[in-house]
Amino acid sequence: MAEKQEQPQASQNGEKAENAENAENAENAEEAEKPQELEELPPFEIVTGERLPAFFFKFQFKNVEYSSGRNKTFLCYIIEIQGKESKTLRGYLEDEHAAAHAEDAFFNTILPTCESGLRYNVTWYVSSSPCVGCAEQITKALKKNKNLKLSIVVGRLFMWEEPDIQAALKKLKAAGCKMRIMKPQDFEYVWKNFVEQEEGEEPKAFTPWEDIQENFLYYEEKLAEVLH
Ligand SMILES: [Zn+2]
């Protein structure tokens, strides 16, 4: 499992480090303002919101092969609920791999129940593919809720060389979960729809990083091998 690694290499880059720190301080400040009874809750470091800071997107979603320092999972979700009235919900979750995982938290906090009579089409854009525990939780949720369809689009594959991870991903597929690797266009989609943009300014264009296409092809091939 994701050993806790060093914080983003932010420290190598003064400005980015500051941004990351500010973002964390802002989170802490918000925490401090919450009612005190929250202090008794176990550490459940899940952050939810509508749009994530650009710094986190650029760092956490990068589809590099070596994911050092990327010890969180960022999960952007779109839930389309079809019934008499259809509606769409969207937002994001992030976790600290030491505590609860974003995938698990999604089913606990965002979509704890699926009402029968409604259809749920859920799409996740996740920075990396699920660990064994989360894959099992997702598989359970899909088996329990036949009216739930889930597509997972992942930036990177998490420990895909491990046989237990491969087995968990295969089970996920067998349970009906669609999984694919984020293409450059998917990163752009997340950038436009889930990343904070400067207020009152035109959204900044997405700037792909070097190797974005090569890395996508690399992971796509690995995923095909795992799921064959
Ligand atoms: Zn997990």
UniProtKB/TrEMBL annotation:
InterPro entries: APOBEC_Cyt_Deaminase (IPR050610), CMP_dCMP_dom (IPR002125), Cytidine_deaminase-like (IPR016193). The keyword Metal-binding applies. It catalyses: cytidine(6666) in apoB mRNA + H2O + H(+) = uridine(6666) in apoB mRNA + NH4(+). Keywords: Hydrolase, Metal-binding, mRNA processing, Zinc. Its cofactor is Zn(2+). Residues 52-172 form the CMP/dCMP-type deaminase domain. Residues 1-39 are annotated as: Disordered. GO terms for cellular component: cytoplasm; nucleus. GO terms for biological process: cytidine to uridine editing; mRNA processing. This is mRNA(cytosine(6666)) deaminase. It comes from Podarcis lilfordi.
